[in-house]
TrEMBL record:
GO terms for biological process: purine nucleoside catabolic process. GO terms for molecular function: purine-nucleoside phosphorylase activity; uridine phosphorylase activity. It comes from Nakamurella endophytica. The keyword Acetylation does not apply. It comes from the Bacteria. This is Uridine phosphorylase. One of its GO terms (cellular component) is cytosol. Residues 16-231 form the Nucleoside phosphorylase domain. The keyword Metal-binding does not apply. It catalyses: uridine + phosphate = alpha-D-ribose 1-phosphate + uracil. InterPro entries: DeoD-type, Nucleoside_phosphorylase_d, Nucleoside_phosphorylase_sf. Keywords: Glycosyltransferase, Transferase. Its EC number is 2.4.2.3.
Amino acid sequence: MSTPHIAAAPGDFAPVVLMPGDPRRARLIAQRLFDEPRLVTDVRNIEGWTGTVAGRPVSVLASGMGCPSITIYATELFRFYGVRRIVRVGTAGGLAPRLQLGDVVVGSAAHTDSSINTTRIPGVHFAAAPSYGLLSAAVAAARAAGVPVHVGPIFSSDHFYGVGSDVFSALARHGTLAVEMEAAALYGVAAAEGGEALTTATITDHLERGESMTPAEREECFQRMSRIALAAVLSDSPS
Ligand SMILES: O=P(O)(O)O[C@H]1O[C@H](CO)[C@@H](O)[C@H]1O
Ligand SMILES: O=c1cc[nH]c(=O)[nH]1
């Protein structure tokens, strides 16, 4: 069995999946956090791995960057591979002044300038929201680990370059925590396919203050966030 973008056999993916944007991060998560990780797909170098954590099966698949890319991979996992939960483990640029580099943001809603959800139900301004069960489990795991965590709306932009600082300032004034590029699409796919989804993101840059993490700091933070996401995706929380 394969889909246009995933070449894996039935049962190769666990029902619960972590989803970073970067294929290298997918490989690192599998190799450092899973027991007995095995590569299950690498079409277009988008790597998917499956292993176990505390004896429970779990997978990781990269999404690539942007709403169309994550929509393809999340749809194929939910629709054809029996996946029920996807937790994005991303990076984001901070907008809210209280955020510090390395903090974890959990997206309780996702604003977007993408049309990806507008075209799902014509005439409807779709409210892109995560699974409450996954969200509460991620927050509990972060607090238990002593990791600073912020819960609130994030902004999923089609642009990495070219969003005006006036847009970011207005979003911050409207309570938006951070900007990234996939959460709104992931939440839309989960709703359409009857699955559960959540976005967690590490603040790697602060756009108002012009701060950035070093590569070594990024790697350290990804591991911390991935452990929180693992606790959420493997939790028994009802949706
Ligand atoms: O680090 P990832 O998960 O890719 O997330 C962020 O980084 C990419 C942009 O550099 C976009 O995909 C954005 O959402
Ligand atoms: O500033 C940033 C950092 C990560 N991801 C984004 O989309 N923007």
